[in-house]
Amino acid sequence: MEHGKILLVASAGVVAICAALSGSVARAQVARPPSTGAPPGAEAPAGPAAPATPAMKVSAAAAADLKSGDPGKIRGALDEIRMAGKGPGSQYAGAIVELLQRGVPGSVAEAALDTLGDLEAESASPVIAQYMQHRNVKVRQAATKALIKTKGPVAVRALRHALSDQDPMVRGVAANGLGALKAKEAVPDLFLALDHRINEAATSIGMLCNPQECEQLASRIGKFPFDVMSGGIEQALFRPDVSDDSKIKLLGHVRELGTQDANKFLREALKKWPKNGSARVKQSLDQAVQATGGGA
Amino acid sequence: MKTILGGLAVALALGACGAGQTHPNLFATDWEDDGGRSVAAIRAKIGAAAPPVGADVAVAVAGNSDKLVGIPLAGGTAWTFPHAIDVRPAIAGSVVVGEGGGELFCLDAASGKKLWARPAGGMVLHGAGDDGRVTVVSLGQSGQGSLLLAVNRDGSVARQIDTDKSLGVPAVLAGYAFVPWSNQYVSVLDLTSGEEAGRILLRGQVSHAMAVGGALYFGESALFRFDDAIKGASHDQATKLTVPQRELPGTPMLYQPGDQKLSPVAAALDKTRLYARPTSATPIGLDSDRFYGTYFRLAMAFDAKSTKLAWVHSDKDDIVGGAAGPASLVLCDDSGAVTVLDAATGGVERELSLGGPIKSCVVQADGLAPSQPQPPPPLATQISAALTNRDAEMVAGQRLLLREMATLEDPSVTKTLVELASNPLTAPLLLTDARSAIAARRNGAQYMIEALGRHYDFLHDVLLTPPVGPMAQALAAMKNKQAAPLLASHLLDPADTDDDVKQAAAALVDIGDAGQVPQLREFFMLYRAAPDSEDLSSAVTSAGQALLVFGGPDGRKVVDGALADSLVPEALKARLSAIEQQLEAQKGPKAPKK
Questions:
Q1: Which of A117, A282, B89, B150 counts the most CB atoms within 10 A of its CB?
Q2: Across the interface, do B524 and A192 touch by the CB < 8 Å criterion?
């Protein structure tokens, strides 16, 4: 359960932003895989997949409705396709892309982008990226969210560009998305974003940083509120591809803070430290917990 | 009776023993216009006598209004006179008259040396005049009338006159005191007899008498010269100098009413002043053909004939006092800096210091010899510097300067306007003005093109889009095709305003070509079914028009597709259809097939 708690803290930004975007937590969770209780960065445990909900069928009229020119019918068809999900809905991705390429009212565009996101069709990324330039901020928010799911180089390029968007929500979702898409090439942009108070960038940097970049992230501890930085630190701490030395340096920076928040973070990290994890890092965690025990 | 008793009490308080008697008919309101006879007789008696040239000095109230600091404008050592200061001091001829702590005192203007001091008797200094031998001082107290003192250099009172009238700032020449009162009269008092030897009825507001450049003047918002024409004053035939009318920020005054107390601490009215110096020539004119207006940190000079802005000087601090001198304007700011500017160019001739921050300042520059000014930058650069000040209180002055600047043909003006309109710190009113001015520019296209290369960029701190709409209008008017790709890129920048996008699309119809078709198509696609505002609808219409004009068959296909799409609003379709038909008509009837 403790693992779950930590993960909740780490991805609080993602959930909050996506929930605000979609208006429902259930839809927001699509932005990131639901918590498995595993530490961030760890591979998902192998095993039987969660029981799938029975696939809903798309009615025969859906294809025609998409081309109907009637906003109500189009939205209805899009809802159906979304409900049907990635499997049965995928065959409609092309038609939705065509719809967007032709031009639709803002509300229809939002629904179409949401649907394309749920269909996770990378082929849709180029047209979604075009809607990242839309003047309607809700359309841009929907496009940003969709790109995280449709993925691909086009999505990464558009999300990097979106870090400079006027809308803080678009910027925040884009920062999260670049982490989710493992866009290592975006780390310099993410640092710039973090320095411009796009707090979501910290977690993504923690997910992607190389040793030097992880050190850069650590050097920002103390300069930003700890709750901003903790997501990134945790991501780096539990990543198997980050060296023990880098992790120990990170912990050193946290230890130097000496605050109660730092101590709490370290204690929780220690609790969930894998049994087969690095003994050196665990020892460093132990010492850091003790050193910060009397923190203010 | 009450007034007389009050006056007597004041006289006693001042201890004016030995002073001349007050004539009972002074300042009578039943006076009848004598057609200028009395004043003509006075002029005859005065003959060639003229006021001596006054000291060139700046005098400030400093500290906690507990000292005066003075500095000769031609250079020299600053002086300090510690004394309580309750009202703004007055410089008259070669002396400075001040008041504070119940005492009236007179200093030598050049050195600050005390010449005399007397009890003020509860009255407040209004102003003073001096002819090198006698200093006349008017004092008043609200509701208690006024007191006029003529004091010799040794401090003895030559004449003391109290009255229930409110007296303005007096002058003195050849044994006569010239005393403005009731906003229309100047009574000429014979200081020997104490009688009113003559009276001038002026057709204009008058509360000040002063000596400038060897002549006497009366007035407040305009100046009347004491010359032979003065005898026709009641028939509005006096030699009159009016400062040309023109728009100025803050509605500045040439002089504040002379029959009122001026605080020792400068207020907003002191920072928004009009300055002008009359010439001694006939016809009368403005020295150096200049008049000046200050507005907080700005000093502006205007051509007397055209009233056009000649130059603008930007001070680091608020300008709290000054004077127009011969071929110069002298300013002091609240940091205690005194600057002498060349009237013709605005170039700095001298910079002096009163030693530290000041509360207020009075300046007299009567015989100041000009010196070589530093060459000032071009007017456009001067205005540009003035516009960079971000103080909100400066906006009214800056708007005026911006309008002045917009009339200049210099391409650097375009650069300044674009910079102003691209700066998030620019005040909203100034931003609107700058955008309007940019739209009307017909030069400086290179600066516009450079600016069009910028887009909103949060990560790189570009937090305001450039003024795309106005630049699009200007560049289209200049037929600048180089701008077309950049304008097209702004169609797809969501940070640009709807109006900017509208203007960019409209400009592309004029200066665009096939190179911009991809952006036009994308823009048309994004908004043909979602033109959320009238501006955006216009922009989509223009984009459609551009596609029809230079988009080739594919462009036509895109527009026709929209015409057939039920998601596209009917109003937009109607516009597009009309354009299509118009373009078809322009092509003329198709040639019959052979």
A1: B89
A2: no
Distance CA B570, CA B580 (A): 15
Residue A133's alpha-carbon distances to A123, A129, A166, B481, in angstroms, are 18, 8, 11, 25
Q: B268-364: which CATH topology? A: Thrombin, subunit H (2.40.10)
- Is A103 close to B493, i.e. CB distance below 8 A? no
Tokens of residue B314, six digits: 């930007």
What is the value of ipTM here, to two decimals? 0.83
Contact B55, B94 (CB under 8 A): yes
Q: What is the value of pTM for the model shown?
A: 0.77
Tell if the CB–CB gap between A105 and B456 is shorter than 8 Å: no
What CA–CA distance (Å, rounded) separates A157 from A153?
Answer: 6
- Which of A81-85, A91-95, B13-17, B388-392 is predicted with the least confidence, judged by mean pLDDT? B13-17
CA dist B421 and A24 (Å) reads: 41
Q: Which of B492, B498, B526 sits opposite A103 (nearest CB)?
A: B526
Peptide bond into B283 cis (omega under 30): yes
Using alpha carbons, list the distances in angstroms from residue B393 to B93, B309, B420, B427, B432.
35, 21, 17, 10, 17
Beta carbons within 10 angstroms of residue A132's beta carbon: 26
Cβ contact, residue pair B530, A136, below 8 Å: yes
Query: Among candidates B348, B316, B314, B220, which has minimal Cα distance to B276?
Result: B220
| Residue of B305, B300, B286, B306 whose CA lies nearest to B331 | B300
Three-state DSSP at B213 gives coil
What are the residues of chain B with a beta carbon less than 8 Å away from any beta carbon of chain A? 456-460, 492-495, 498, 501, 522, 524-530, 532, 536, 561-562, 565-568
Helix axes B552-563, B517-527, angle to 10 degrees: 10
Give bridge partners of residue B81 from the DSSP assignment.
B68
- CATH class belonging to B2-22+34-48+126-242: mainly beta
**What is the C-alpha separation between A64 and B315, in angstroms, rounded?**
72
For residue A59, give both structure tokens.
Answer: 């009615």
pLDDT tens readout for residues B110-133 = 999 999 999 999 999 999 999 999
Based on DSSP, count helices (H) and strands (E) in chain B, helices before strands: 15, 28
Helix, strand, coil tally for chain A in percent (to 5): 70, 0, 30
Instruction: Convert the pLDDT of each residue in B16-25 to its tens digit.
Output: 444 555 566 7
The domain spans of chain B are 2-22+34-48+126-242, 268-364
Nearest Cα residue in chain B from A197: B459
Give chain A positions within 8 Å (CB) of B567: 69, 71, 102-105, 108
- Residues of chain B with Cβ-Cβ distance to A164 below 8 Å are 456-460
CB contact under 8 A, A163 and B458: yes
**Of residues B532, B533, B487, the one with CA closest to residue B510:** B487
First to last CA, chain A: 27
B507: its two tokens: 């400009």
- Phi/psi for B484 (5° steps) reads -60, -50
Q: Check if B2-22+34-48+126-242 and B268-364 are the same fold.
A: no
